[in-house]
Design brief:
single chain; 402 residues; mainly alpha; Growth Hormone, Chain: A; 2 domains
């Protein structure tokens, strides 16, 4: 599945409308992913299970993302992108609707797994559609506009979903997300132009992405580099309580600061990556590392903490750069590579909190998650340097062979 730059270009207004429609889908997905964490206590009480048990619903969703992203990308290679987007939004709506109707813990686990299946593939295909609507020099900005829905979800979608859960019930949160997915489906059906499948797209062609060293190195940058962001984000509320000594009411505004930073970082990184992709990637990794190093000291007071949380959120622009990099190094199999970015993203979502939890459990203190995040950010930067070295060596080898 390639970025079809020969596809007919829509007008400026229509292109913007398509970006908004695609971003509405990522907004629904982002809201479901991040809001699920705040619904755990409600699900626990409703189904009569412990909170750790209810937390397994998040694990089930992440497992669905990690498995579904590559599978749907590979086996959907011969379908048109519009058909794939419609099918994935239909599956996402069905999964959330079934989740709302679940009467047992095990049924909810199955339905959350099903809901996660189209998550990663949607991001990948939506990014390819957005990239096909603009010149090659603006691909990263197009991808960033699609991902923007996810970042806006952290500002507006998650608080709204949490309020629905608090005042109406957690089941209605999933109903609302299902409705958003259906709305996105309808808009895609009537407004997104048809793009025929690439005649060269095959399962074997998509799997060729797995043979490219730069694909694996780029995914490694995403897994390790992004792990630090989730490490801090997961424990932020507890740190604000135990270290900063702020009331519970201060948590939503601080999470909004994180979301605003992520939105700003996504837009800026999209623009910068179109001009200098690899320096942008290295710069955002180092920005994250500096913010992580400052976090243990900033956590003691609200103003420094706010600044650092904004910077940590801004370093989330790494996702846009990683996605754009994958599109450039996986020629002929961009669909699988782009979908794997979401698998990497969810792997980071597991690794970061796990390592942060280990540090806290070993009495290193709540703010030790900042040092864990620093180590992960620097680890991502080391893989970035390895990627640069491998690329330079490959160019030299090709020039000698010529």
């Amino acid at each position: 599945m390639t970025v079809n730059q020969s596809a007919p270009r829509a007008s400026g207004i229509m292109t913007t409308a398509i970006f908004i429609i695609l971003a509405l889908g990522t907004f629904a997905i982002g809201t479901a992913e991040f809001a699920a964490m705040s619904l755990v206590p409600m699900i626990s009480r409703s189904l009569g299970i412990s909170e750790p048990q209810a937390g397994y619903t998040i694990v089930a969703y992440a497992a669905g993302v990690s498995i579904g992203a590559p599978l749907l990308a590979v086996f959907g290679a011969r379908f048109s992108r519009k058909t794939l987007l419609i099918g994935m939004m239909l599956l996402y709506a069905a999964g959330n609707a079934l989740s709302a109707l679940a009467t047992s813990f095990y049924a909810l686990l199955v339905f959350r797994f099903i809901t996660g299946l189209p998550h990663g593939a949607y991001f990948g295909v939506a990014g390819l559609v957005a990239a096909s609507l603009v010149p090659a020099s603006k691909r990263s900005q197009a991808v960033s506009r699609v991902i923007l829905g996810l970042t806006i979800a952290t500002i507006a979608g998650v608080p709204m979903a949490n309020m629905i859960g608090l005042y109406v019930g957690w089941r209605w949160t999933f109903v609302s997300i299902a409705a958003l997915a259906l709305l996105t489906l309808c808009l895609i059906r009537f407004l997104v132009p048809h793009q025929p499948p690439c005649p060269d797209a095959t399962i074997r062609a998509e799997l060729n992405a797995l043979r490219v060293k730069q694909v694996w190195l780029t995914l490694g940058i995403g897994v390790i580099g992004f792990g630090g962001i989730f490490c801090v984000y997961t424990y932020l509320a507890s740190i604000m309580d135990h270290v900063t000594h702020l009331p519970e009411s201060a948590v939503p505004p601080m999470l909004a600061v994180f979301g605003i930073g992520m939105t700003a970082g996504t837009l800026l990184c999209g623009w910068l990556a179109d001009h200098r992709m690899m320096p942008t990637m290295g710069g955002v990794l180092l920005t994250g590392a500096v913010a992580m190093a400052a976090f243990p000291f900033a956590a003691k007071a609200v103003i420094p903490l706010t600044v650092v949380i904004f910077l940590i959120g801004a370093s989330g622009g790494l996702s846009t750069v990683v996605q754009s990099r994958l599109l450039s190094v996986a020629t002929g199999s961009e669909g699988l590579a782009a979908a794997l970015n979401q698998s990497a993203f969810n792997t980071a979502n597991a690794i970061g909190p796990w390592l942060g939890g280990l540090a806290i459990a070993h009495d290193l203190g709540w703010t030790s998650v900042g040092w864990v995040g620093l180590a992960l950010s620097l680890g991502g930067f080391m893989i970035f340097l390895l990627s640069l070295a491998e690329e330079a060596w490959s160019k030299q080898a090709r020039s000698r062979g010529a």
